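Need a sequence for this fold. Nothing fancy.
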């Protein structure tokens, strides 16, 4: 290896992280412990000031220690983007257009964009990477997504976890995986960007359905059938909307993520659904959570896309009816019983 290459290898990679929620905080922990230099943009000025003073996020994963030598916090986004190699998007999808409204394509030139988001841009019904391509002319090959079963709370506790990094450019996915690998985290690279991105979006809706049934008093037997039927709905959707013959839906980036979200105590989407099942209104459940259940926005987009393609997805439809049409949750689940097998 040449001297210059050796030197380059020693210079820490610079990464901007946009977002101050649980997943952003967990990613900052993983990367900064791997000697990556983080420029962390957070929306609330008071949070930025708190982290600078106390080295902890005051609002999410408050126990995680932030290393000030590796992590600098910013409230002006363009300052956080200057000079970085990667930009990680970790803001819920619904807020992406407003969060990035002052940026233009120049801010992304020569940079790789990593979406850590598992949601859709509402109204436009677009995946985040698709939206980024249209909004900033960002080539898909410059983009990757972080997928796989990984709750931020477990990362904070250093529980063994696995991630799937997807990009049409496998070498980009591999390079980014290398930044994440650690003693408690293994990342692996694949190429099916839209496939894992759609699957991550739909599994959130399924987790809401699981929460609703739990809140209504259904048991484990019903939930197991619900989840296995949901996997078939994911397959039907992907085979029509984004077919790919080498996709392995049984792998952890797809099925694994569905299972963890459907069953974990940490799932925002499951918790949100559970409140609906117990009789909360959508508004009161959202206010009580202080976290974002992406499935709430996603179900409208996925329902709309499935109608455009003439695909019948009974579980998605039931959640859509409950959340957006004010349908009675028990009546919807009773209707669903007839479709499950
Ligand atoms: N938390 C996890 O375990 C986890 C794991 C994998 C992926 N993700 C994904 O990461 C993304 C971020 O979710 P999270 O779990 O970090 O969020 P969170 O629910 O922990 O926190 C909410 C986030 O939304 C932001 N927010 C709230 N209102 C806003 C507004 N009006 N404008 C802009 N931002 C606003 C908050 O600042 C905060 O960053 C989501 O797409 C989620 O699906 C989360
Ligand atoms: O807490 P949830 O429901 O947003 O899910 C978080 C992650 O996507 C799990 O992999």
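Here you go.
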């Amino acid at each position: 290896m040449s001297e210059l290459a050796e030197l380059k290898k020693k210079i820490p990679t610079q990464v901007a992280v946009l977002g101050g929620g649980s997943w952003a905080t967990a990613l900052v922990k993983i990367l900064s412990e791997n000697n990556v230099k983080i420029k962390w943009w957070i929306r609330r000025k008071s949070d930025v000031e708190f982290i600078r003073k106390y080295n902890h996020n005051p609002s999410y994963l408050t126990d995680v220690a932030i290393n000030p030598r590796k992590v600098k916090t910013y409230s002006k986004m363009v300052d956080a983007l200057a000079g970085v190699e990667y930009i990680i998007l970790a803001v819920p999808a619904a807020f992406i257009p407003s969060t990035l409204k002052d940026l233009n394509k120049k801010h992304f030139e020569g940079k790789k964009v990593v979406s850590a988001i598992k949601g859709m841009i509402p109204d436009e019904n677009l995946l985040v990477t698709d939206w980024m391509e249209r909004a900033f002319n960002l080539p898909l090959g410059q983009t990757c997504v972080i997928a796989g079963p990984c709750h931020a709370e477990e990362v904070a506790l250093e529980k063994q976890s696995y991630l799937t990094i997807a990009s049409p450019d496998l070498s980009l996915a591999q390079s980014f995986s290398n930044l994440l690998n650690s003693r408690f985290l293994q990342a692996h690279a694949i190429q099916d960007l839209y496939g894992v991105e759609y699957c991550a979006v739909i599994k959130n809706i399924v987790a809401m359905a699981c929460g609703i049934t739990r809140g209504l008093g259904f048991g484990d037997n019903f939930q197991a059938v619900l989840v296995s039927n949901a996997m078939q709905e994911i397959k039907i959707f992907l085979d029509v909307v984004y077919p790919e013959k080498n996709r392995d839906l049984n792998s952890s980036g797809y099925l694994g993520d569905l299972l963890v979200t459907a069953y974990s105590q940490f799932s925002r989407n499951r918790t949100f659904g559970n409140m609906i099942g117990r009789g909360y209104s959508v508004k009161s459940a959202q206010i009580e959570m202080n976290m974002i259940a992406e499935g709430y926005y996603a179900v409208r987009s996925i329902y709309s896309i499935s109608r455009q393609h003439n695909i019948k997805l009974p579980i998605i439809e039931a959640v859509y009816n409950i959340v957006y049409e004010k349908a009675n949750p028990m009546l919807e689940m009773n209707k669903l019983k007839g479709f499950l097998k």
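For context: The domain at 3-191 is CATH 3.40.50.720 (Rossmann fold).
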